[in-house]
Amino acid sequence: MKIKFSKAWKSSKQPRKQRKYRFNAPLHIKQKFMHAHLSKELRKKYNKRNIGLKKGDTVKIARGQFKKHIGKVDRIDLKKTRVYVSGVEITKKDGTKTTYPIHPSNLVITEMNIDDKMRQKILDRKK
């Protein structure tokens, strides 16, 4: 199979091709995979179900070993489709602490960083 990205691949029913589509997608399309659900209060306020994550957002972890943990988004890794939240650390075997990557589907945005004018436009669009 080709390694090159093609927009037509996302229509396949085969899981291996769907995984391949997500893995080989360019960064501007991977950015769309980095959306997380909004909390119930924000959902009512903005009439929107989800929005792209940004550094500085306050999120609640909904699934995994750090469930119910609340923290700010420190870093977003588009290549690996992972988010790093402050305070979410694991201890390695040698005793050093390292940040733990979390998939955006396991996060709920509780507070948004609205310093960006483009993001404000996105939120105003649906009202």
TL;DR of this structure?
The chain is an alpha+beta fold. It has 4 helices and 7 strands.
Keywords, separated by commas or semicolons:
127 residues, SH3 type barrels, 7 strands, globular, alpha+beta, single chain, 31% strand
Can you walk through the features of this model?
This protein is of the alpha+beta class and 127 residues long. The protein has a single domain, classed as SH3 type barrels (Roll). The protein has 4 helices and 7 strands.
Determine the N-to-C terminus distance.
Answer: 44 Å
Poorly predicted residue ranges: none
Spatial sequence of strands, sheet with the most strands: 2-1-7-3-4-5-6
Helix and strand string, N-terminal first?
HHEHEEEEEEH
What characteristic shape results from the CA principal axes?
globular
CATH fold node name: SH3 type barrels
- Share of helix among residues? 25-40%
Number of helices: 4
SSE map:
Elements: H1 15-24, H2 27-33, E1 35-38, H3 40-46, E2 50-52, E3 58-61, E4 70-77, E5 82-91, E6 97-102, E7 107-111, H4 117-125
